[in-house]
Amino acid sequence: MMRRVRTLPKRGTLLVSTDLHGNLADFEALESKFRDELRQNQETYWVLLGDLVHGPSPEAARRKPELYGYDDASPILPSRVMALQKEVGDHFVYVIGNHDFSHIGGPRTGKFYDDEAAELERKMKPLAVAAMRGLFRTAYLCAIAPCGALLCHGSPNDTLERFEDLDDLALPPQTDYHKRVVGTFLNSYGQPEEVTARLLARLSGGGVGLRMVLHGHDRDESGWNVHDGNQAQPVMFGAPHENKTYLRLELQRAYRSVNDLRLGHEVLRLYSSL
Ligand SMILES: [Mn+2]
After folding, report:
1. For residue range 205-238, what is the model confidence (pLDDT) as tens digits?
2. What is the C-alpha to C-alpha distance for residues 232 and 6, in angstroms, rounded to an integer?
3. What is the CATH number of domain 5-269?
4. Cα 215 to averaged position of ligand 1 atoms, centre (Å)
5. Ligand 1 center from residue 109 Cα (angstroms)
6. Which residues surround ligand 1, an ion (CB under 5 A)?
7. Cross-strand partners of 7
């Protein structure tokens, strides 16, 4: 049985970042923040919310250099992530995104190429492809931060009926119900406030109250998108350099809502101290 939800501890520091899409410089900048935090406090965790792979085509980089002007490092990023996993163990948490899913049976994505999974695998050695698929097959579908947040790639609707249903979920999913759960966790951009509230209530319990969904999947040039009352996303891919954003949360706190996440405190720019 593969556990698909990771519940984080009730104390320590939590970094949350999303979609890298093959951007090695962004990965290294985040990794360096993570290592700095770890040096100061052993109880530090980093949750990366998917879409590690599939960077811009050279044409897209030329067309919009302020957003897409970087070399696609997708062929080597999975091995960098696995090396970090090996080193820090459960202090690093990988949550799967829809682009990752396309390598293990999910729908093929076509943002920068007709079939981005085929395009990437063509550039990699067979052993590296197998290792990458292993990373994605063993990824989490979501993480629970006891400070009040459900963390996932998309912002899911309330298809998931019970928390425990995530425990025996295979990737790729094998039942229609699991297919619908994975579909909404990986592909939804946002939900009406009451739908998210219903899901959060269902997943709360055992002394943990969930009050917001923090997610990725979408782009936003401002780098920080709060929407529908109880959902928010820090943006890396699709934000210009100066607006690339990640989150730093204190796990022992109780964030009451997305409004408790303040720019310059919990909401941080990757390349400036604001
Ligand atoms: Mn995505």
Report:
1. 888 999 999 999 999 999 999 999 999 999 999 9
2. 20
3. 3.60.21.10
4. 10
5. 9
6. 51, 97-98, 217
7. 144
User: What is d(CA 241, CA 84) in angstroms, rounded to the nearest whole number?
Assistant: 24
Digit-coded pLDDT (tens) for 103-113:
999 999 999 99
Contacts of 154 by beta carbon, 8 Å cutoff, 6+ apart: 98, 184, 185, 186, 187, 188, 189, 215, 216, 217
CA separation (Å) from 162 to 24, 60, 187, 204, 271?
37, 41, 20, 10, 39
Count the Cβ atoms, other than its own, within 10 Å of residue 207. 7
CA of 181 to the centre of ligand 1 (A): 15
Q: Which two tokens stand for residue 258?
A: 């997305």
> Tokens standing for 269?
């720019």
Does residue 154 contact residue 98 with C-beta atoms inside 8 Å? Answer: yes
Tell me the CA–centroid distance for residue 41 and ligand 1, in Å: 31
Helix (H) and strand (E) counts in the chain: 9, 11
Q: Is 52 in contact with 20 (CB distance < 8 Å)?
A: yes
Q: What are phi and psi of 77, to 5 degrees?
A: -60, -40
